[in-house]
Structures are given as structure tokens and as C-alpha cells.
Fold this protein.
Amino acid sequence: MHELKAETLANWLTEKTNAIKTEITSISQLNGGASMYTWEITASFEGGLLEGTSRLILRSQSDTPLLPSIGIDCEFQLLKFLKSKKFQVPKPVYLDMSGLLTGNPAFIMQKTIGSSKFIGADSKLNILDRKQLTRDIGHQLGKLHKLKIPSNQLRLFKKAGEQSLIDRFYTQLDLLPYSLPVIEWALRWLEKNRPVKRSQSLCHGDFRNGNLLIHRKRLTGIIDWEFAHIGNPLEDIGWFCARCWRFGNDKEEAGGIGHLSDFMESYEITNPRKVNWVELPYWNIVATVKWALIAHRQGLRDSWNSARKLELALTGFKGVQLEHEILKLIKNHERVKI
């Protein structure tokens, strides 16, 4: 990855916006992101389409992108489509597929007000705040899952039917240079207990506490759409509700933020498609297996010179912890079944 240079960015934005002059007043790289690099930018434009001061976000593909990321171009197009449907997503503005800005494909979007940090642990949120926020989140996800995708937009995604979720997990497992017997056993368990296939919808693919922007106790944005795909709606819900994304606030099953009942009620009001909530524990296990595989892969990325980051190294250690969680979840699930 090349360094993001203010002069290069200013010249590029001047051309894109038809400005007379562009001044970059600040650039800061942000932490997080599974397979993307992200910068926050403040730019002042003299004339042109963005005249005045704008706060922007630049997302760039990394040197070692994770599969099944849809890629920069597809994420940019998806955000445009979702914004046109009044979803709470950042507004994408400019796309750089040449790699001029960072050495890899990138796009720029307007910054959405709000913070994604430790929503569940925010002591300023009282019971009513949590209830309303949980309902806001349920509404947005229900709206997404009932969205009809035009045929010209379907090309952005790989249909889940091309390779089942479990098969994708096996593929990812086979790419690791060491064996993970707990994960392999868990995948076999998931195969044997696979629920009946139901209607599919557009899934975010990483819908969780951490990818939700909150401002003044209300939901203001949903970010990081790089893993969007067509799949089972419960995949998103199971991921959102998985214990690994509650950040220690385990009593609040809905993402560590609020009660699952509030989330479910709001989701069902928004989306008339029937969801079999009895299957949710299965999808919680799917989510934990998925995160365990990602954790192991992220740890390996740290050993590659182009991707060395402390965050990646620490994520690698979570893999074993998640394997223990998988065993507990399956044990509890079997106990309930009996």
C-alpha cells in the first residue's frame, strides 16, 4: 500500500469536483476494517461541486483482501443504490479504480456523523435509549432484508447458491497452513443440523456492533458493506446477536445493545417475511465459527510483511478463545434439544 499523499489527493479531488483549488487540511488513518484501509479527510474546496469544507472518508482495498469481499467497485455501487433507497448509509461520491491515491482501488464518501465505538458499554444509554436504539437497528435490518434487488444490481453479488456458507467455511479452512480440529468438527455439526433452506435476501455480511454509527443515542449510519451478499436473513441476525460482538455486555442479546425481543418486534413490523426465530441459536454458532476462521486468517496476515499490524496479531489469538465458545454453544444447543 502506498502512502496517501495530500498533494496527490488534492489534485485528484480538484479534477473530480471541478474546483478551482482544493486544500487538504487534515488526513488521519483510522483503525479497524477486515480487509480495507480507511482515512478520515478534511478538505476545503474553492468552487466546484463540493464548495466549502467537507469531511470525507476514503476506503482503500488492502494488499491482502479477505474473501469473499465484493471489492471496492461493487461496494461503491451498492452504497449508491442503498442511498437512493433512503438507507442510513454514507453517501459515496468518487471512485478511484486506478490505484492512484493509495496504490490500490479506493473510493471516497461523505463522512456520516456518529461513532461506532463500544455502543453497548456506553453508560449514557438508559433503558429507554437502548430500547429505541435496538428498535432502530431492527427496523433498518428488516428494511434491508425485504429490499427487492433489481436484476442489474444482482451482478454485484455472488449468490449464496453458488457455494453454500458451510462449503465456503471448508474452503477457508483448507487454505490455512495448520489443522483446526474443533472448527472441522463444528462444520460437520453444522452440516448435520442444517435448517431447512428458506427464501434469501440481501445480507450486509458484517452487521454488528462496531459497524453501526450512533449520534445522540440514535442510529445514524451502517458502514462496511464489503461482505454484502445474497443469503439467509438469519445469517445477519445471528452475526449481530453473537456473543463475540456484545463486547462483554452479554445480557443484552441484541448486539450487546438491547433486548432481543425489542429487536425482533421492530424487525417483524418492518419486514413481513416470516423469520423462524427458533433457528437463531444455530446461526449464533455459524457466526462464532465464521469469526473464529476470520481470526485465524487475520493472525496469518500479520506474518505477511505488507500487512503487519498489531491489531491483526492480537486478532489471531482470539481464534482459540472462539473455538472454546463454539464448544459451549453446541453443548448448550444439544442440551436444549434433548
